[in-house]
Amino acid sequence: MARRKQTDELTIEKVIQWAVTLSPGQRRELIDGLLALDELSEDSDRHTPNTNDGNGGGTGRGSIEKKTINGCGPYLYLRFWSGGKHRSVYLGKGEQD
Asked: Between 66 and 58, whose confidence is greater?
């Protein structure tokens, strides 16, 4: 019987299994970040800024910022509001313009 090759491919099922290990607050932050990603279009250097008032309200909208650091980059950051705090998550190195 042939064995199936195991891969480290990330699947929705694996993400959900991992998310169950998070605290409720961490899951809320993850959801807010995912909502921010979901609401962004992919064709803009800097997307519409968050309209959240910073008091924990709002819909989780955010922006992706291209940042150059010491002449290197661009580096992509997701910026969004979660739990009344402005969050920043490094997404990786972007393409040169």
From this structure: 66
